[in-house]
Amino acid sequence: MRIAQIAPLAESVPPKFYGGTERVVSYLTEELVRQGHQVSLFASADSETSAELFPGCAQALRLDPDAPDHLPYHILMLEQVRRRADMFDVLHFHTDYLHFPMFRDLAGRSVTTMHGRQDLPYLAPIYASFTEYPIVSISDHQRRPVPLARWAATVHHGLPHDLLGFAPHRRRDYLAFLGRISPEKRPDRAIEIARRAGLPLKIAAKVDRVDRDYFETCIRPLFDPGFVEFIGEIGEHEKSDFLGGATALLFPIDWPEPFGLVMIEAMTCGTPVIAWRRGSVPEIVAHGVTGFMVENVAEAVEAVGRAQLLQPEAVRAVARERFGAERMARDYLALYQRLLDRPEAAAVPAMLPAANPAGAAAAAARKPA
């Protein structure tokens, strides 16, 4: 199959540091190539891929001081895609709804994965106006605010099996927070949980410009030398050690998380996740198997002790079974084929029934890592 993957340009594919969407695009692209498909990647020129690369800009725009406005670069990239559209059987967009006006006549052989939150008031009119586009959600919960969209499938993210290392016998003597410093990610909760649980906390997180004041006024004053260690952004090669050495990953979100890639990264390292029961969390965390879902700080503190009883081998086995890149690519390929066979049948009007992660996880836990 001839497939175009169209990525955002804010980060390279994969990102050098923080970045979820572009990282997933990389995993999917490389797995599709591995499975023998002819894949082209539209992304920044500093991306690394085994697919054919069509650069949309010289470097990741977040790292380019001369690119304060990202929109022109995306418009030019989409024009590239438009000119080459006949080269591909399927166009897979990861650029939100930006391409909708330009590709309306090609919507029947396009797939659009929405990676962000959907509970925003301006999205409903967009979906109501562009009903031709088959849309993919990354969790069933993500699609709930806009049931009128043409949802074609839910495809959970997946990681390459050899991406993160596994050291089950290493000492796990701290709690981890990985991702982004922002009010909705609630690093303040993570600090409180760690303090009450009596374990050090290591924070590996990016601070965007929009969150700099929040970081300086609300989070930095909570740091306690010798107890809270702020590491800053880390790259892919550092995650195995960072996550693999933790007692648990804290995911104390205060927003409807569309997926939460860091959760499956931690579980793949054998590290359980303690997460607030919000957004996609019930679809990702198998309660009592790969971690614990909680409603408040007190429950999270209690879960820290319970997390220490979970076996890293079992946590990893479940993550590899449910969240592998091979499974992710297989899900997308099934959708691509359905589009090519019967474009008019690509949409599923009703939400797919939610999976039972605890049941599937328990079965997977019995398999060897």
TrEMBL record:
Organism (species) = Halovulum marinum
Glycosyl transferase family domain ranges (all copies) = 172-302
Q: Which InterPro entries match?
A: Glyco_trans_1, Glyco_trans_4-like_N
Secretion signal, residue range per the UniProt entry:
none
Top-level lineage group: Bacteria
Q: Residue ranges of the Glycosyltransferase subfamily 4-like N-terminal domain? A: 18-127
The protein's name in its UniProt record: Glycosyltransferase
- Annotated keywords: Transferase
- Which molecular function GO terms apply here? glycosyltransferase activity
Question: Where does the record place a coiled coil?
Answer: none
Q: Which PANTHER family match?
A: BLL5217 PROTEIN, GLYCOSYLTRANSFERASE
Q: Where are the transmembrane segments?
A: none
